[in-house]
Design a protein that fits this description.
alpha/beta, Rossmann fold, six-stranded mixed sheet, 14 strands, globular
Length: about 525
């Protein structure tokens, strides 16, 4: 194999469209890239997804690949889910944590793996094993199973094992921990200043537990840890002391190490994507992820080839990485199992899968406070929700808070809806007392009000009117501590259709929910 194709095996690339692009076809044939990452932009119907993944594998086989192409996706579930129409809605991490039942994480992992595998996606960039111990974390939050490192470890392990059962490769992320940041690494470089003892007691606990249970791959964090890296402002992704010394040698992880996307600003606005790709390989990673721009994908390969030719990276290291990648792939898939078919299995998005997941939602949606005053049939209700604000760059933009109105109207006939643009909160707050006079009961949805004072103030004004106000925190559970005078406070942790269906039924007294608050705000 030529050097450029050896190095190509270390690249994960993305592209636009629900059919294979000419650029990705070129990278497969010219460089034998290791894999492809799919985003919402690539996801159509289940039939279209299957056609896409099969066409990618067909191209890889025609190009002479010895084993199938890695096809990966961020199917964390909850607020970060890529699969859409026709597939099962599966609870995200914090809702699973709120069930206090690790078996639910395993079941969700099994269904996730089963549907991904059937659609030709063989590698999931999940579970998130970050311990979310910072209420103002803008990028992890409800993507985490919770605040307790041991609980996160157990739930992450079960999620991982469930997906592995269905022969889907998994990824622990983001090493060595992204849970205690107040900066989104998509936008800037976060810094975590904890000492090594603290990291071993909190951030590293889930990684160690899952490594012991047979982790497949680990994704690095674009976060700077001064306790681990002496070179100032060097993110973990580019740090040999983090990747090789800590993860490989101390924690004895011998699986695949992949970067997060190298086009994120924490890298791109620092060392740059292409130079960062070289430094990440030098640090000891096996796979470099360049998710968007074709020119940067090709330049990254060529720059790494140049570094090998100049003696800055040994060819032996490249060979060792390829060996780890091939071992992971061969443990989960082979050419014989990739069939040429357009038939999507009937279990994708099946009633059986949906019913099983709905039971988990009933165990996870959490009532934090309840004065016992349920919405009555003859009460006129005003449902208020903010236009969806994507708190995280990684969230899929196809999902909306408006789904709550559709679900609530199915269970209550006397309901009006008010949608508020975030920029209009101050204006609406000044007139809301007059608006709500015509209603008996108010249901107010919050989207991380703990980080948005104008949203918090608006809900307080609602409560001051003396009306019965139910607050539903549909992202951050930390919102619950802000509105202790509300009639009821409920956390759904996510704005998925099933979460809205369950909370709507709870609000009118049709179901009971059993979630246990997974964070410590009170």
């Amino acid at each position: 194999m030529s050097l450029k194709k050896k190095v190509g095996r270390l690249l994960i690339a993305g592209f636009k469209g629900i059919t294979m692009s000419d650029e990705i076809k070129y990278l497969i044939h010219e460089y034998h890239i290791g894999g492809v990452i799919l985003f919402g932009r690539n996801i159509g119907t289940p039939t279209e997804i299957l056609h896409l993944t099969q066409s990618l594998q067909h191209e890889a086989k025609a190009a002479g690949y010895s084993s199938p192409l890695l096809i990966c996706v961020d199917q964390e579930n909850g607020v970060v889910r890529r699969l859409g129409e026709g597939t099962t809605i599966i609870p995200g991490a914090m809702l699973l944590g709120a069930t206090d039942n690790p078996q639910h994480a395993y079941s969700a992992g099994v269904i996730t793996g089963k549907e991904l595998k059937a659609l030709g996606i063989n590698w999931n960039l999940a579970p998130v094993v970050d311990v979310n111990n910072n209420p103002k974390n803008p990028v992890i939050g409800v993507r985490s199973f919770g605040e307790d490192p041991n609980k996160v470890a157990e739930f992450a392990k079960q999620s991982m094992l469930g997906m592995q059962r269905e022969k889907v490769m998994t990824t622990l992320k983001h090493f060595p921990g992204h849970g205690d940041t107040s900066v989104d690494s998509h936008l800037d470089l976060p810094i975590i200043k904890h000492d090594l003892q603290r990291l071993h007691e909190v951030e590293l606990v889930p990684f160690k537990e899952c490594i012991a249970a047979g982790a497949d791959a680990i994704m690095t964090a674009h976060v700077y840890f001064p306790a681990l890296e002496t070179e100032e402002n060097t993110p973990a992704t580019l740090s040999r002391s983090v990747i090789t010394n800590l993860l490989r040698k101390e924690l004895k992880f011998d699986g695949v190490i992949t970067t997060d996307c190298m086009e994120m600003d924490a890298i791109a606005k620092g060392i740059g994507t292409v130079n960062g790709a070289v430094k990440a390989i030098q640090a000891g990673v096996d796979l470099v992820m360049v998710s968007h721009i074709h020119s940067l994908q090709e330049q990254s390969i060529l720059k790494i080839v140049e570094a090998v030719e100049n003696g800055e990276i040994s060819e032996k290291q490249i060979d060792e990485s390829i060996c780890r990648i091939e071992n992971m792939i061969n443990n989960f898939t082979n050419w014989s199992e990739i069939e040429e078919t357009n038939l999507v299995p009937a279990f994708i998005g099946s009633k059986e899968h949906k019913d099983e997941m709905r039971e988990i939602y009933l165990d996870g949606v959490t009532v934090v406070h309840d004065n016992g005053k349920t919405i009555q049939k003859d009460e006129k209700v005003l449902l208020i929700y903010p236009t969806n604000q994507y708190a995280m760059m990684v969230e899929d933009k196809r999902y909306s808070t408006i789904e709550m109105a559709e679900q609530f109207k199915k269970v209550h006939s006397l309901v009006d809806v008010m949608e508020i643009n975030p920029s209009s909160y101050a204006e609406v707050t000044s007139t809301i007392a007059n608006v709500v006079q015509a209603y008996d009961h108010i249901v107010a949805l919050t989207l991380s009000a703990v980080q948005q004072p104008v949203q918090e103030q608006f809900v307080h004004e609602l409560i001051k009117t003396g009306k019965l106000v139910d607050v539903v925190a549909i992202r951050s559970p930390y919102d619950a501590s802000l509105f202790t005078m509300a009639n009821r406070i409920i956390c759904t942790y996510e704005f998925t259709k099933t979460a809205f269906e369950v909370v709507s039924q709870y609000l009118v007294g049709k179901v009971r929910v059993n979630g246990k608050f997974p964070v410590t705000t009170f």
